[in-house]
Amino acid sequence: MITTDISAKIENFDITKDVLNQLPCMVMAVDRDFNVLFLNAVGCKWLEEDLENLEGKKCYDIVQSPHCRTDNCRVKQAMENDRVYVWRNKMTAAGKTFPIEYTAAPLKDKEGNIVGGLEYVVDISERVKIEEEVRAHSRTIMELSTPVIKLWDGIVILPLVGVIDTMRAQQIIENLLFSIVENEAAVAILDVTGVPMIDTSVAQHILKTVSAGKMLGAEVIITGFSPNVAQTLVTLGVNLGDIKTSGSLRDGVSKAFDIIGKKLV
Amino acid sequence: MIISEKSIELHIEDDILIARKVARQEMADIGFGSADQTRMATAISELTRNVIKYAGHGVCHIITESTPSEIVIKVEIEDYGPGIDDINKAMEDGYTTGGGLGAGLPGAKRLVNDLSIESRPGLTKINLEMTRPNV
Ligand SMILES: Nc1ncnc2c1ncn2[C@@H]1O[C@H](COP(=O)(O)OP(=O)(O)O)[C@@H](O)[C@H]1O
Ligand SMILES: [Mg+2]
After folding, report:
1. Which CATH code fits A145-260?
2. Overall pTM surpassing 0.90 (yes/no)
3. DSSP code per residue over B25-75
4. Could A165 and B14 be called an inter-chain contact, meaning their C-beta atoms sit closer than 8 Å?
5. What is the CATH architecture of B2-133?
6. Above pLDDT 90, what percent of chain A?
7. In this prediction, does ipTM exceed 0.95?
8. Is A60's Cβ below 8 Å from some Cβ in B?
9. Which atom of ligand 1 lies nearest, measured to the CA of B85?
10. By CB distance 3.0 to 4.6 Å, which of A60, A161, A235, B99 could disulfide with A68?
């Protein structure tokens, strides 16, 4: 039963309390005015507080995050909208700040009336560290994957791998155009085999690359559209117009040799 | 019925990639095929990019449901920017005020079939939905 009296609460809990206290994350419940009703053992440890001393304290007095006391507070939103929210945030407790993921839900009485909110908070320091490593790693792959290769006299090729954002698309265009000039290329192949998805802003960059290539006297061939990507572009209504495309890189390369007048054997 | 909800705040371009990735993952988890994943991820890419380009920032909620008969993905994209002046015009192919291709909104509608827009200064809300039989 939900009551707003902490001491009565403590007596009512036995197994539930044991379980909650042994959960390796912070669990807190507040009433509609953000008075703390319950804080589990991990929470008490993080905040260096005793449950008995929390009487009359607001959650935002014992823990701080950028969401506290704003409309962004997911516990507030959970109470108002009767919904569950999962959110990433930073939390400062007992002088330490660390990244968290918190889940906020409305707290209800037996009749289903919302009488407050509850949240559980997971320390995601480790996860964030790993994500940063992965991000740094994929950045390296990205940088590695933008060099243009000279395939033959007059033919340059740029294989794209991974997710293309607009910044990277910009960089790709510049690299390709620069290498067309440097190699006096007649054909440039842009291979998108490794690209899982193309939206209109990336498509626009591809279109720009093709017309800029033309201005420099080079034909740009796009190869390796996957069936999913091709279908999506058609549905979006992106007009690839008179752009030369080839299903596979191999076809594209032979087309390129045709253009410079050599038969590929 | 299994329901999962994820929210991604949209502030920078990286957030677009995160929203797309989360949607794909959530869809894969309940059995959507890769073509549907690509369609939905592309639609999300268009709409979240619009949020960052035209509104500055917003939120993308991704909700998936799985019942014995159906799998459903609902996406709610919300921003607190200036709003879309003329929704009918914005839904026309080729209409752009930002030097784009003007294919994002109408294209997203074709990609997912089910798209609704609500917009006024201060709040723009776009809902996408895709339902498939649970096989
Ligand atoms: N979230 C938004 N807030 C305000 N205006 C928007 C928003 N999304 C789209 N628009 C308007 O609708 C137009 C069409 O959008 P879209 O079809 O994606 O094409 P594009 O992004 O290429 O301009 C935009 O140019 C812009 O004027
Ligand atoms: Mg757009």
Report:
1. 3.30.750.24
2. no
3. HHHHHHT--HHHHHHHHHHHHHHHHHIIIIIS-EEEEEEEEE-SSEEEEEE
4. yes
5. 2-Layer Sandwich (3.30)
6. 44
7. no
8. no
9. 5
10. A60
